[in-house]
Amino acid sequence: MLSLFRPAPPIDRLPAEQIDSEYKKLRLQVFLGIFIGYAAYYLIRKNFSLAMPYLTAEGFTKAELGFALSAISISYGISKFVMAVFSDRSNPRMFLPAGLILSALISLLMGVVPFFTSSVTIMFVMLFLNGWFQGMGWPPSGRVLVHWFSVSERGSKTALWNVAHNVGGGLMAPLAVAGAAIFAGLSGNSASGYEGVFILPAVVAIVLAFLTYFLIRDTPQSVGLPPIEEYRNDYPTKTKKTFETELSTKEILFKYVLNNKWVWAIAIANIFVYFVRYGVLDWAPTYLSEEKGFDMNKSSVAYFLYEWAGIPGTLLCGWLSDKLFKGRRGPAGFVFMLGVLIAVLVYWFNPAGNSVVDMICLIAIGFLIYGPVMLIGLQALDFVPKKAAGTAAGLTGLFGYLGGTVTANALMGVIVDAAGWDAGFMLLTASCVAAALVFALTWNVRGQEVVKNH
């Protein structure tokens, strides 16, 4: 491990009278750091999609650009697991901004140097690298969350932090469009300037990377504060164990993650959750156009509402898992997936012509599906020691992206082509049921109670 990324060592504890005020200040500060930092990652994750119309005009086919675009999902899914192993043994104050700057540099190169958008192969390599560095965002955020927020409040705090990807994703498009306009103006050619789609968001991301460095701290002990469990008197186990020992890579992988049945259970659940998430989202415009008679404007509105409905849904799901279910995530996930199942069935069987019902169904699915997406990441943090949190979350992400997202894109297309939309919806329905059942298996599992058995 590079010395630059080593975890910050504990220092002497502050005087008792300073602890409460310092804890409150730093909890807000580090939370803002990971929120801003993770939102900034989304400023430079999907830019290529906005550049694709310009690249099509330059002679690239949609198939070629689609192939290049797939590099991000492939590398991000793998990186979220691999880089998490390193992140769990690193200082998030260095790790998160480093990944953000590296990702931004890839984006800058694609905008500034024409060579890096000159062929499909080169674009695939650059986007693969971008996806790889993007995998350095979630794991350090998870490390911060488990060290600064205790089990009984972690659901609502993780849900609030999770909104960062909606914020960053929402801001990316106007930033990218502004960048294209600026560079088109500089070149004096309104038809070009697409380079700005990469450049302006990357510059903003680099600025925000430095801001996150100044905001984030590693562990409370590294700034003279007691562990969060002691500060809030909220211990994850009856023995009041806090799992503060730094772990080796071998211990993280083979003692706490790869032989943990609960981590594997939620990793499998993530395949089904992601299949529903993207099976509905990515195919909504096509399905609504072909089967429900929507035009492109209506479809785009439905797509937008699906995404943004996820914000209040995620916050509610996190709150319920903390307050109503006392830190147990399984019941909230089960209830939300049942809601998704009902909404998917209505969406499927609603006759063409009732566009309002279709819109309501998509809003409901969006509202409900992002809660389970968040909960699986949160359960991954709960089911292992704090020093292995990123790796566990990375494993679930690997399954979600490679098993769920790729399947939702590829398998849904093949099934619908071969057997029609009804067959596709049968898969979505079965996935809702499967995800709900796995959440039910974790019904009585709370916090880190399972860690003591390893």
Automatic annotation (TrEMBL):
- GO BP term, pick one: phosphate ion transmembrane transport
Subcellular location as annotated: Cell membrane
Which family does this protein fall into? Belongs to the major facilitator superfamily. Organophosphate:Pi antiporter (OPA) (TC 2.A.1.4) family.
Read off the PANTHER family from this record: GLUCOSE-6-PHOSPHATE EXCHANGER SLC37A4, GLYCEROL-3-PHOSPHATE TRANSPORTER
Coarsely, its chief localization is membrane
One of the entry's Gene Ontology molecular-function terms is:
glucose 6-phosphate:phosphate antiporter activity
Alphabetized, the UniProt keywords read:
Cell membrane, Membrane, Transmembrane, Transmembrane helix, Transport
**Which Gene3D superfamilies would you find in this protein's record?**
MFS general substrate transporter like domains
InterPro entries (UniProt xref): G3P_transporter, MFS, MFS_dom, MFS_trans_sf, OPA_Antiporter, Sugar-P_transporter_CS, Sugar_P_transporter
Specify the protein's topology with respect to the membrane: Multi-pass membrane protein
List all membrane-crossing ranges.
26-44, 65-86, 98-129, 163-186, 198-216, 262-281, 301-320, 332-350, 356-378, 390-411, 423-445
Source species, domain of life: Bacteria
> Which residues does the UniProt record annotate as the domain Major facilitator superfamily (MFS) profile?
26-447
Q: What is this protein called?
A: Glycerol-3-phosphate transporter
Gene Ontology cellular-component terms for this entry are: plasma membrane
Organism listed in the record: Brevibacillus gelatini
